[in-house]
Amino acid sequence: KWIRALRRKNWKPEDNVDYRICSEHFLPSDYKDIPGNRRYLKRGAIPSVFPTFPRYYQSAPKKERRELIRQINEPTA
Prior knowledge:
Elements: H1 2-6, E1 31-34, E2 38-41, H2 62-73
Antiparallel strand pairs: 1-2
């Protein structure tokens, strides 16, 4: 699920490599607070916050996608 959420083309994590992702990509509800000001990700947490994600990685809204398909399929004069 992480691989899909990160939307990196042709990226496959290797078994023995330590990958990290910034905490800003997780919701506050994805964390478990531990006494002593420690936070840990809950099991099953998936990164879901990408405020500056490049536009080409973001899905186009359905209405925008339909309009684009209509324009592509429209015969030219």
